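To illustrate the input format used throughout this study, we show a single complete record. The first block contains the structure-token representation of the backbone; no residue identities are included at this stage. The design step must infer an amino acid for every position from geometry alone.
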């Protein structure tokens, strides 16, 4: 249950380091419970997702989709003349929306009377933080919500590469892009640049894209993106990057003697908790092997007065999870509610082109857990919108079921609008519905979503 906050011995009841999704939610909810709250943010209010992550990236995905939609328009009777694309127009529109969201998040804190310090803060002790200006502030509780940061491996020429932080600010659209990594960030930007007409080469040190997603979906995405012109170099770690006199780059990978030529080299090999220099040792907190802050089920660290939420804990690096953890922390510590966060049946999506999404166990995971006692239903179909587009690309939906109980263990899909469709399906998986429940639901025709209740 909640611990009672009392006394005026501290400057604040709660001091939050990091004004991202988790930190802002925790600050707002704690303040609504009557706590005196302050938050420090060294860059901009809003955090990775809003400022340099999923929101601006999704806007780039939307912008890049028009290349395909405009090409298809002729088949629907539309005449589109002088079709051209201007990168600065899209880039600046996205950055303006980032400014809007930054203002909105700032206003949220202001409305809830959360004091803001726009500077770096570090932990100085169990109840103390030190600002970059040198000022020390005391708080009954400290919440760490500093998120994660892109990993930049060390190799010759790495200083010539960019990460997902910088990609939104490119001066011009590159003709050739080399992307290191094959996780969701890499695959999303590969799709964006490919759709915008860039030549894209994805270089991965292993032979697997999107590790953790269902193998059938990964294979389908690989086939489709290769057909769209994306090149892949598997089992090829980066060796070095050399800059040419004209400003372009030669990228040497694996044991291949000839370099890949590029105008931009994007490294998207993962993200690690942003804990460097936070001073957590001053409160007796030892970081984990990946730099994460170890916490218990309630987000409490080894120091009873310090908590952590979001990507900095390296539990589940998803914005909605950070938000739920931030709210649960504030409700529990300041609101008297015994609240916790459930980590099962978390839906996730990759906004590749086409996108894929999944919830629950993949087929491989289910076989490891249940052996042969599972059933796999699927629907392999050509989306209606692809028919007039003269694209042979096919969608694929899979449902993994416990053969004994008919309970749906997982749903996975690739095809247009898959993330939008999966959100509703995730409710069914979370609720523990059975295959019979899906079969008993009338199909919504004609739609792609109807395949969920027609799988055999």
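Output of the design step:
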């Amino acid at each position: 249950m909640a611990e009672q906050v009392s006394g005026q011995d501290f400057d604040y009841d709660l001091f939050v380091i990091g004004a991202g999704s988790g930190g802002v939610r925790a600050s707002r909810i704690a303040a609504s419970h009557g706590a005196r709250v302050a938050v420090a943010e060294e860059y901009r209010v809003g955090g990775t997702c809003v400022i340099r992550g999923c929101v601006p990236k999704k806007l780039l995905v939307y912008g890049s989709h028009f290349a395909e939609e405009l090409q298809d328009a002729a088949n629907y009777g539309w005449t589109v003349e002088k079709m051209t694309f201007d990168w600065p127009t899209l880039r600046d529109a996205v950055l303006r929306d980032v400014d809007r969201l930054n203002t909105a998040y700032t206003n949220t804190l202001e409305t809830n009377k959360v004091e803001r310090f726009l500077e770096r803060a570090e932990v100085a002790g169990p109840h103390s933080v030190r600002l970059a200006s040198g000022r020390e502030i005391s708080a009954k509780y400290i919440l760490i919500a500093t998120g994660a940061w892109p990993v930049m491996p060390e190799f010759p020429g790495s200083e010539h590469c960019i990460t997902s932080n910088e990609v939104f600010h490119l001066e011009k659209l590159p003709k050739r892009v080399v992307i290191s990594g094959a996780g969701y960030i890499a695959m999303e930007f590969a799709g964006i640049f490919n759709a915008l007409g860039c030549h894209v080469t994805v270089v991965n040190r292993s032979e697997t894209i999107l590790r953790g997603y269902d193998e059938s979906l990964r294979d389908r995405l690989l086939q489709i993106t290769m057909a769209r012109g994306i090149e892949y170099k598997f089992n090829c770690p980066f060796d070095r990057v050399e800059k040419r006199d004209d400003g372009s780059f030669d990228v040497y990978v694996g044991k291949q003697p000839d370099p890949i030529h590029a105008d931009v080299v994007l490294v998207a090999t993962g993200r690690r908790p942003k804990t460097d220099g936070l001073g957590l040792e001053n409160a007796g907190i030892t970081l984990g092997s990946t730099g994460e802050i170890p916490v218990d089920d309630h987000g409490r660290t080894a120091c009873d007065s310090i908590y952590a939420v979001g990507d900095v804990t390296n539990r589940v690096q998803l914005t909605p999870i950070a938000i739920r953890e931030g709210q649960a922390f504030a409700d529990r510590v300041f609101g008297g509610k015994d609240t916790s966060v459930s980590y099962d049946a978390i839906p996730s999506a990759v906004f590749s082109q086409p996108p894929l999404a999944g919830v629950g166990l993949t087929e491989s995971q289910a076989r490891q857990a249940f052996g042969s006692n599972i059933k796999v239903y699927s629907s392999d179909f050509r989306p209606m919108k692809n028919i007039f587009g003269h694209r042979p690309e096919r969608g694929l939906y899979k449902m993994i079921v416990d053969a004994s109980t008919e309970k749906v263990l997982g749903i996975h899909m690739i095809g247009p609008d898959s993330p939008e469709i999966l959100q509703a399906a995730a409710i069914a998986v979370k609720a523990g519905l059975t295959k019979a429940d899906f079969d008993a639901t009338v199909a919504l025709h004609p739609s792609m979503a109807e395949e969920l209740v027609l799988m055999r």
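Structural context for interpreting the output: The first strand starts at residue 12 and ends at 17. The chain is about 30% helix and 20% strand.
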